[in-house]
Fold this protein.
Amino acid sequence: MEIEQINEDRKGYYKAVEDGKEAGRMTYTWAGDTKFIIDHTEVSPDFNGKGVGKKLVMAAVTYARENNLKIIPLCPFAKSVFDKTDDIKNVLFH
């Protein structure tokens, strides 16, 4: 599975693609220069139960770490991943 990031001026998204099909998408909005808000995560029904959503969140975590950014997970799914995964809480915006 390939995760692509499309980043624009004020917003962007991550897209999971497998065999040419979009498996899922997670959108975000920039909140200044040093943090972004994950606002929605959606997984195609064909890919339910395959960990697609978590892979999208983890791609955002990697991006945040590499660029010294913080994440605000307003999306309930993204928030649940942060709540359950202690070793990614260092990128949470407090």
Q: What stands out?
A: The first helix runs from residue 52 to 66.
